[in-house]
Amino acid sequence: MGRGPSRPVVGPKRRASGWTYAKAGVDRGSIREGLAALLAEVHYRAPASSGRPLALSGHYAGVVRIGRESIAVTTDTVGTKVLLAAEMGRWGEVGEDAVAINVNDLAAIGARPAAIVDTLVMGRPDRRQLAGIGRGLERGLRAARCSLLGGETAVVPEMLAGIDIGATAIGFLPNGRRPITGARLRPGDVLLGLPSSGVHANGLTLARRIVRESRVPWRRPRRGARVALGVEMLRPTTTYVGAVEAVADSPDVTGLAHISGGGVRNLLRLNPNVSFLLDGWPGAAGVFGYLQKLGGVSNEEMYQTFNMGVGFVVAVRPRGVRALSRSLARASGTPVSVVGVVEKGTGVRLPALGLRYAQYA
Amino acid sequence: MGRGPSRPVVGPKRRASGWTYAKAGVDRGSIREGLAALLAEVHYRAPASSGRPLALSGHYAGVVRIGRESIAVTTDTVGTKVLLAAEMGRWGEVGEDAVAINVNDLAAIGARPAAIVDTLVMGRPDRRQLAGIGRGLERGLRAARCSLLGGETAVVPEMLAGIDIGATAIGFLPNGRRPITGARLRPGDVLLGLPSSGVHANGLTLARRIVRESRVPWRRPRRGARVALGVEMLRPTTTYVGAVEAVADSPDVTGLAHISGGGVRNLLRLNPNVSFLLDGWPGAAGVFGYLQKLGGVSNEEMYQTFNMGVGFVVAVRPRGVRALSRSLARASGTPVSVVGVVEKGTGVRLPALGLRYAQYA
């Protein structure tokens, strides 16, 4: 569609050996075609009296100008991470994810979250489960400093047995702030990476399939970890709202990327006319290295499916690197590292691994 | 929760004979308890710099004050109507519903829709199905005069086989309009009803169960109807946005109710300190009479599950009845009838049927 956020398409092309998203049952090509078929039917442009959508095609959130304010909206679901939550009988993490994945998408255009509405679609209401989800929502709201404004609880036993957890986040561009889209990116801009807490809520269909097929128990730690593998992989998505708010009004910030479904390919959403050279992105360490080895997964598949340790990227002008790194580190309470640089050309490159991605989806 | 829209709970208490929602597999009590367990965990109040939510507890939409604008948000899914869409192989109607059910909830507080984001969760992408949904979204957007600002397409084959269709609508209160909540309702106010197009997107779990158990074919018209029963029951939800916009700035409009899940009980969301006497609500005619007879459904169950022919109610001061009826009829292109009156007391009453409802959910 000509405006508004694009829809992430997870899963790469099929490969001969090693686990891929396609093998795990999610075919990227048919999703892309189905989505194109839907969007080909939607042309309507509302009159200006209904608000004016800004053109931010392919970006993380849509923006509509209402009266004197710019309102940002995005929606996403936790996906199959709920199946791991069910496996482990722990619901707080996915409740927190439902908030975090959406507010991070708002943060990725520089919008400040105001409110969340959640959508829970379930086969059967379960008090313990819903209380756990509520505790997670509460933690997510606190981290993002936004309010729960409502929700929908649909009980549809004929449609699914478990629960689908989604949310929509509504935010705004405060005090005349312009959306940060990546349009101003230029060669020489530096890519600062903020650490992820783990897989977040992406790649779970593949990760769960690898663990299941390998008959590895969810309830024991992998070698080198302190908590059970299932607990490690449930860890809630880090919220990057505070970090982004600390730097969003600086003119030296030129792009923001939430590293969600699609891995490093997310950078391609910012600007198609520059190249992203990722020479400082971490290697496959921790749970990522474990999953890669266990599933015989290619580097190409790993870096386009998982965040590989970096959950959010802030692109900055060279002159801003020092001050903005310090602001980001202070606001996030985590180390900030240079993960790459913007160059002339197109695509995302990880030269150490011989990888190049030309398209987001 | 203390603010924002309440979540409709469909399905009444179990009855000895005749079909009820509980018998169809949806237990109202356990939904209410599960929801209470979730909301008991959510207390956080965001700082004013994140926007200020207005207190509209139990209402159709939440409102957050962002800068100088009041932004309204609501979210809902089409529910099990998608199973009838699958039965009939027709997807346009439920696509249109996804927009209509949400914009009608915005209209029910007097907010004007600006944008929709849709959420499609499916087991497998199907181009034909998604194109049909796209055509329906387009019709819904045109009827509501609002824009599609984005969406999420989640493919989760392990979680469900079919498709769940939901959306979130974002609107606003234009030019200083205050939310119309029903707080100003008083005895003597007149209830004007706008016709529904059929069952809309409510009661489908019960209706489908009745038809299936009776072994009535979906592809033949019921006696007195011109189209197949399945087509008749798929008819998309009427959009009441235009009608509400035509009268929302009148000081004589004191309440608005979208007659969705919960049937006539929806009126109880407007004001707990008045009584709604429904002496002009239609009897069980058309598809409603057919379903009631086929399933041996009680009047109590029918009027708290289906809209029974009235999809939206506008409460007006007596002095405004004539002019506002005319405005509503002109804007909607349908007849407008007096369906009841506000009285002293509490609850909703249909004296001709001996019915009284004390609570919304």
Give me the oligomer status: homodimer
- Could you give a short account of the major beta sheet of chain A? 7 strands, mixed
Helical stretch tally of chain A: 10
Going across the biggest sheet of chain A, name each strand in turn.
8-10-7-11-9-12-13
Question: How would you describe the shape of chain A?
Answer: globular
Number of domains as seen in the coordinates of chain A: 2
CATH class term of the largest domain in chain A: Alpha Beta
Structural class by helix and strand composition of chain A = alpha+beta
Report on the architecture of this protein.
The structure is a homodimer of 361-residue chains. The first copy, chain A, has 361 residues and is of the alpha+beta class. Chain A has 2 domains: 109 residues, 2-Layer Sandwich (60s Ribosomal Protein L30, Chain: A); 168 residues, Phosphoribosyl-aminoimidazole Synthetase, Chain A, domain 2 (Alpha-Beta Complex). Chain A has 10 helices and 13 strands. In chain A, the strands form 2 sheets. Chain A has a 7-stranded mixed beta sheet, with helices on one face. A 6-stranded mixed beta sheet of chain A has the order 1-2-3-6-4-5, covered by helices on one side. In chain A, a hairpin with a 4-residue loop joins strand 12 and strand 13. In chain A, helix 3 packs parallel to helix 4 and helix 7 runs antiparallel to helix 10. The longest helix of chain A has 18 residues. The two termini of chain A are 14 Å apart. The N terminus of chain A is likely disordered. Chains A and B meet through helix 1, strand 2, strand 3, strand 4 and helix 4 of A and helix 1, strand 2, strand 3, strand 4 and helix 4 of B.
